[in-house]
Design brief:
The protein is mostly helical and 407 residues long. The protein is built from twelve helices and three strands; from the N terminus they run E-E-E-H-H-H-H-H-H-H-H-H-H-H-H. Pfam families: DUF349 (PF03993).
């Protein structure tokens, strides 16, 4: 036999390469059957090696089979079988060499990828845009983990740099948020001081000026800066209570008679009437609204008439101010006054056309709405509001055309 022999009823495998001759079994039935048995065992090993070769060719992660190939190669010396072990050993040795070369190439490629990721990380880790930088670093970390190992001689350096950059970024981020939290806690003293000042100011403010003061206080509140959400909510509740209490106290202390309230509201309406005659009324409607609300009830009959006049005048003034802002946006640089007034009329005509069209559409469709409980009055109010918007713009257009003729 080429690969072994039988002596004294025992089966021996011949030596090959550095592996010595060894006894692998005994004759059971006959020498021919015994030889066939050990030959088949060798063929099974060959099949296992061929299976590994196929998997190496098919799989993307070829390097994962290296240990399997090495273990197979090293186990050949102890296998109880008969066959061309030398050829099989050389085949496994060749496969091991190919896999080592493949792994070396991959690790070189991995080094290039991880070097590029390090450069990307250096830029991101230096950022102070904590939210976006954190997301970017997590993305780099994911790509880093998906990239395989690098050569042993580079591994400690490159992994160390990566870990240090990530660690330094999150240390800086933690320090920033710790400082921010400390600042927010310290900032709460500003809120306490603001509430104390607001309480004093509200207590000293006359009833008819409370609304204006409320507006100023709300503006100052927005400028206080950020604090913790829970603390902000608590201070906001205290602030709102101060505003409500001041209004309630003012109403309780107010000794205004309906007659006095009527006179105050008539005076306010007259002021609005004078402002409404200006081309661009120089009046702050928000303050006027606050003052109007602070005046007591003038009596049922007077209230209806005054409320109607007040509403029309504030709408007219509001339209004029809006139209002027729109004109300033649309006007070309260097336009003379006549050209500006022509443009003002054109812009108002466009707005009136839009509102008239909306009114017509609403009137045509209002009958189609399902008039469920409470919906009739809602639709009536909306229709009345739309008609009023159109009427106000027509009044204003008439005023502008008369002013242009007179000029």
């Amino acid at each position: 036999m080429e690969y072994g022999y039988i002596k004294d009823g025992k089966v021996y495998r011949k030596s090959f390469l550095d592996f010595p001759e060894r006894e692998i079994g005994t004759v059971k039935e006959s020498e021919e059957a015994t030889i066939q048995y050990f030959t088949q065992k060798f063929e099974a090993i060959v099949s296992e090696v061929e299976d590994v070769k196929s998997k190496v060719e098919e799989h993307a992660n070829k390097g994962s089979f290296l240990i399997k190939v090495i273990n197979l190669k090293e186990s050949l010396g102890n296998v109880d079988a008969l066959g061309d072990f030398e050829a099989l050993y050389h085949a496994l040795e060749q496969l091991e060499t190919e896999l080592n070369e493949y792994i070396a190439q991959n690790r070189h490629k991995n080094l290039q990828i991880k070097t590029a990721l390090l450069e990307e990380l250096r830029v991101v880790a230096a950022s102070h845009e904590w939210k976006s930088a954190t997301e970017a670093i997590k993305d780099v970390q994911q790509r880093w983990m998906k990239t395989g190992a690098v050569e042993v001689e580079h591994r400690e350096r490159i992994e160390g740099e990566f870990k240090q950059l990530v660690g330094n970024f999150f240390d800086r981020r933690a320090a920033f948020y710790a400082d921010l939290e400390k600042m927010m806690i310290e900032k709460e003293a500003d809120y306490e001081a603001f509430l104390n000042q607001a309480a004093k100011q509200l207590a000293e403010t006359p009833a008819h000026k409370l609304r204006a003061v409320h507006g100023d206080l709300k503006k100052r509140w927005k400028e206080l800066g950020k604090i913790k959400p829970d603390s902000h909510s608590a201070f906001w509740e205290k602030f709102q209570k101060l505003l409500k209490d001041s209004l309630r106290k003012a109403k309780q202390q107010s000794g205004q008679s309906p007659e006095e309230s009527r006179k105050l509201k008539e005076a306010l309406v007259e002021r609005l009437r004078q402002h409404s005659e200006e081309l661009v009324p120089k009046v702050e409607l928000r303050k006027i609204q606050g003052e109007w609300k602070s005046i007591g009830f003038p009596g049922k009959e007077a209230n209806k008439k005054l409320q109607t006049e007040y509403r029309k005048l504030t709408m007219l003034i509001g339209e004029k101010q809006f139209l002027d802002r729109l004109l300033n946006k649309k006007a070309r640089k260097g336009m003379n006054e006549g050209e500006r007034e022509s443009l003002r009329i054109k812009l108002l005509q466009d707005l009136l056309y839009r509102d008239t069209t909306e009114l017509k559409t609403f009137e045509e469709n209002v009958v189609k709405f399902n008039t469920a409980s409470g919906l009739d009055s809602l639709l009536d109010r909306k229709l009345a509001d739309q008609k009023e918007k159109v009427a106000i713009k027509r009044t204003l257009l008439s005023q502008l055309k008369d002013a242009k003729k007179a000029s």
